Structure formats: structure tokens, C-alpha cells
Amino acid sequence: MFYSPELARRVYNNPFPLVDITITPDDEIMHHRRIAILELLQKHIRQRDLMLLLEQLVTLIDEGYTSGSQLVAMQNYMLQRGHTEQADLFYGVLRDRETGGESMMTLAQWFEERGRQEGRQEVRQEVRQEVRQEVIQEVTQEVSQEFAQRLLSKGMSREDVAEMGKFTPCRD
């Protein structure tokens, strides 16, 4: 079943070290080189505003241990799970620090898509409002015409119906 049964026994039959990153101090995480940026995000992604991590993230990016694929993974994770009230500023600072153009393109695409979604949502709301207004106007007109027809059928003069309903009197 396994290519190397001996390796499988060593890997799957022995305990392996598990690290609880939530209790590891941030200062220690900052020394983990290649994996530091992802560990830091994993630890704090739900605890607070990402702006509070900005200085540490910039430091780790500047150290140059983070690969382009890690930066893409980091940004995707932040966009999906993170929170900041100042997203434009936060991602702008990261963009200015990064050297991985592919990573920033992903981020630019995310902002473009976010703008498109907001625009589509605004258009939908405007269309709904216009449709509501048109329906209300049509229903009001139909009810008014129906009411005028009833008044005429009860013998009220056209002039009186026109005056009460604020209609323009029609000539036969």
C-alpha cells in the first residue's frame, strides 16, 4: 500500500510534536523566519483589528523570508477571515512593502471585484426602488379609475367625479 512501509510506520506510529501557536509569544513568532507571517496571522486573525498587526507584518515582509506564494496565501486568508476598518490603508501599506507583483495583483483584483459587487448592489437597490414606485403609481391609477367608474355608475356627474378625483374631464 505504501511505497516505503518503514517510513510509513515511523511517521504514523510515533507521536509528533504539536505546537499551540495561540500561547507562543509574538516576539518568538517573529523569529520563525519563513513561517512567521502565517503563524502571526493564524494567531491573531479573529482576535483584533488587523491594523494592530501591520507593523509586525511589514517587518516580516521587509526581512525577505516570505515567498510570493506565502504572500498570496496570507492576503487571501486576511481577505477571507480578517477584519480592519481601514482596509484601503492596511492593504496599501502592504502593497508598498511587497516585491511580489503577483501577490499585489491578486489584491488589486479583490478591490476591483469588491467595487463591482458594491456597484451591482447599488444598481439593484435603485432598480427595486424604481419598480416599487412604478407599481405604486400603477396601482394608485387603477384604483382611482375604478373608483371614478363606480361613482359614475351611481349617477354622479362627470364634472363632480373629475373635481373629486383631480381628473381631467373627458368629453364624449
UniProtKB/TrEMBL annotation:
Cited InterPro entries: Rpn/YhgA-like_nuclease, RpnA, Transposase_31
GO terms of molecular function: double-stranded DNA endonuclease activity
**Into which family does the record put it?**
Belongs to the Rpn/YhgA-like nuclease family.
Biological process terms from the Gene Ontology for this record are: DNA recombination
Positions of the Transposase (putative) YhgA-like domain: 1-70
**Protein name per the record:** Putative transposase
At the top level, the lineage of the source is Bacteria
Q: Pfam families, alphabetically?
A: Transposase_31
